[in-house]
């Protein structure tokens, strides 16, 4: 007699505001439209997440890449770096950004001084390392993309 089950619509977010000219509406989880939720872990920033992972699972593999072989092809297997290795590299990069004065400080919102660091690069291990360094040192990553 055929399938009588109805297809259930899955809703990930719903608008909670009217769109403004040149902008979309603000969207939120349909179960919590009037408030933001805090994860069960209690973390409220990516920095807290990274610091916890660096502390609790330093030897776990985290950041992988496929190396370029001498003939120009990509290796079939990934080379992995652990949380501890990534932490060392990110702290070195972050320290360099701070000590070289590469952050642009803006005070555009209330009393917050926001430190911007732009990244103009394709997706890569290095991009992730700079982004991680920015999070560890309280900088805001501002990605720049080449659309040409």
Shape: extended
- Summarize model confidence as the mean pLDDT: 88
- Protein structure class: alpha+beta
Q: What is the architecture at the second tier of CATH?
A: 3-Layer(aba) Sandwich
Number of strands: 7
Relative helix content:
25-40%
From the 3D structure, determine the CATH topology: Rossmann fold
Characterise the protein shown here.
The chain has 148 residues and is of the alpha+beta class. It has one domain: Rossmann fold (3-Layer(aba) Sandwich), CATH 3.40.50.980. The protein is 27% helix and 22% strand. It contains 3 helices and 7 strands, in the order ββαββαββαβ. It has a 3-stranded mixed sheet with strand order 5-6-7, with helices on one face. It has a two-stranded antiparallel sheet with strand order 1-2. It is extended. The termini are far apart.
């Amino acid at each position: 007699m055929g399938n009588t089950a109805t297809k259930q619509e899955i809703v990930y977010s719903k608008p909670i505001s009217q769109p403004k000219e040149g902008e979309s509406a603000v969207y939120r989880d349909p179960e919590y439209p009037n408030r933001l939720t805090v994860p069960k872990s209690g973390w409220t920033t990516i920095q807290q997440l990274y610091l916890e992972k660096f502390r609790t699972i330093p030897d776990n593999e985290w950041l992988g890449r496929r190396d370029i072989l001498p003939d120009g092809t990509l290796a079939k297997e990934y080379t992995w770096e652990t949380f501890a290795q990534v932490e060392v590299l990110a702290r070195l990069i972050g320290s360099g950004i701070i000590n070289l004065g590469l952050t642009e400080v803006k005070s555009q919102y209330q009393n917050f001084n926001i430190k911007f660091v732009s990244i103009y690069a394709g997706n890569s291990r290095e991009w992730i390392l700079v982004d991680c360094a920015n999070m560890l040192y309280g900088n805001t990553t501002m990605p720049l993309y080449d659309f040409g």
